[in-house]
Design brief:
159 residues; Thiol Ester Dehydrase, Chain A
Length: 159
């Protein structure tokens, strides 16, 4: 009998925050076992994508339907302490501002100890703009700004 893989467990909303778990694998690190700086952006991107999926924002349908896609237009990040091989990470994402064609999301990456004393490793802020297939800013698809506002207000029940 072949064992089926466990089901995919996405992140989850906790009030106005989206929590996403990640583990540091060997491929994420440099030769010293420290996470390579660009990989923090990968963890943040995965957490944002997971947050949108759970909130009912279908990025793939928008792309395939010719509406457009998100693009990062501004990014700030501060590295505070290194993540290391086999660390259990928690990426916490919070919607800070919603505009017609963009959204600002603050993100923190913590070394998760399973307690209130999780250690802050990295924090950043991302502005993502919705772009037409021609690469010009355009309004988000109908309902998306409302979903982001609901997320910001801690109203995160699935659509």
């Amino acid at each position: 009998m072949v064992n089926a893989p466990p089901p995919f467990i996405p992140g989850a909303f906790v009030g106005a925050e989206h929590h996403y778990r990640a583990r540091v694998y060997f491929e994420d690190t440099d030769l010293s076992g420290i996470v390579y700086h660009a990989n923090y952006l990968r963890y943040m991107e995965r957490a944002r994508s997971d947050m949108l999926r759970i909130a009912g924002i279908d990025q793939r349908a928008a792309m395939e339907g010719g509406e457009g896609a998100w693009a990062v237009t501004d990014l700030t990040i501060k590295y505070r302490s290194p993540a290391k091989l086999d660390d259990d990470l928690l990426v916490v994402s919070t919607v800070e501002a919603v505009r017609g064609a963009s959204v600002i999301i603050a993100q923190r990456i913590l070394r998760a100890h399973g307690t209130l004393s999780d250690e802050l490793l990295t924090d950043g802020r991302v502005t993502a703009a919705f772009l037409s297939p021609e690469g010009r800013p355009r309004r988000q698809p109908a309902g998306w700004a409302d979903r982001f506002t609901a997320i910001m207000n801690g109203e995160n029940s699935p659509c």
